[in-house]
Amino acid sequence: MTPRTATLIGLTAILMWSLLAVLTVATGKIPAFQLAAMTFAIGALVGSLTWIGRQDAISALWQPPLAWIVGVGGLFGYHALYFLALRFAPPAEAGLLNYLWPLLIVLFSSLLPGERLAPHHIIGALLGLIGTVLLFAGNSSGFAPGQVPGLIAAFVAAFVWASYSVMSRKLKSVPTDAVAGFCLATALLAAAVHGAIEVTVWPDTTAQWLAIIALGVGPVGAAFYAWDIGMKRGDIRVLGAASYATPLLSTAFLILAGFAKPSATIAIAAVLIAGGGLIAAKDMMGKRSV
Fold first, then answer.
1. How far apart are CA 28 and CA 43, in angstroms?
2. 103 or 201: whose pLDDT is higher?
3. What angle (nearest 5°) sits at the alpha carbon of residue 14, between those of residues 31 and 165?
4. What CA–CA distances, in Å, run from 169 to 92, 105, 127?
């Protein structure tokens, strides 16, 4: 597989993640951990189907504890927080807060050994912060008390995913086939938490079932495998810069589906957050990965 092909595969993950918010909202009132268990089980199945005809593929599950901690901790922690956010907070605002993760990846990466914070990193971070503040200040009716935990969950989710992504770069030797195991472990963990603290709620309509299947196949399934391939074999700088299109696409899909209303505040906040990320990723776009 050429780096160009791997990069193109990685870009498909960004498009699939742009549909995460709208598909999650479309699933209805299913509890967060139940939804995580259902979709990650489908995601694990998607990955295991690629093992057909490859007898040695299952050996990829034999990974050191650190790989499992990073893989399962990142997938379970991020999606549990994100699904909670979309259950309790307005989807557009929660989505934009969550999609601070591309900016955080740039900032976290710059703190790795041999890297440093440059002026454009700081400028990009400030623009992202301004966009986030505007998101709250522009809500004229204010956020209801019950929405605040969801907004906090979205914000923390961004940090979890950024940390997972940066740490994954140190685990390049872990094959993509192992992601199926991470998804299965995440599904089992989510099911256990669901059984302990939630009441099972099954979908009411065919559309909700289809949304769950679409989530498991795409944003909570194939996207992880595509991203893994892109990060390990493709141009990391191109993928890092392209990920800043995700908040704009995600908000657009929410508005098109009728789950959010267009407003000047959301538009300006989205541009600031995405623009800040692009500025912070200037060196990603200007240099080739090694």
1. 20
2. 201
3. 80
4. 30, 11, 26
Distance of CA 258 to the CA centre of its chain: 22
- Contact, 234 vs 241, CB < 8 A? no
Q: How far is CA 187 from CA 24, 42, 166, 180, in A?
A: 16, 9, 23, 11
> Which residue from 267, 258, 204 is spatially nearest to 91, judged by alpha carbons?
258
pLDDT band of residue 266 (cuts 50, 70, 90) is: confident
Which pair of structure tokens corresponds to residue 45? 């199945």
CA distance 107 to 124: 9
Alpha-carbon gap, residue 260 to 269, rounded angstroms:
14
Go through 226-240 and write b for each residue having 16 or more CB atoms within 10 A of its CB, e for each that does not. Answer: bbbbbbbbbbbbbbb
CA pair distance 67, 252, nearest whole angstrom: 35
Q: How far is CA 131 from the centre of its chain?
A: 19
DSSP string computed for 59-75:
GGG---HHHHHHHHHHH
Interval 130-187: pLDDT, tens: 877 776 666 555 667 778 888 899 999 999 988 888 887 778 889 989 999 999 999 9
From residue 188, alpha-carbon distances to 40, 72, 86, 212 in Å are 9, 11, 21, 17
Average pLDDT over residues 111-139: 73
Residues 261, 267, 272, 278, CA torsion sign? positive
Closest CA to 109 of 288, 285, 280: 280
Which tokens in the block code for residue 253?
């899909």
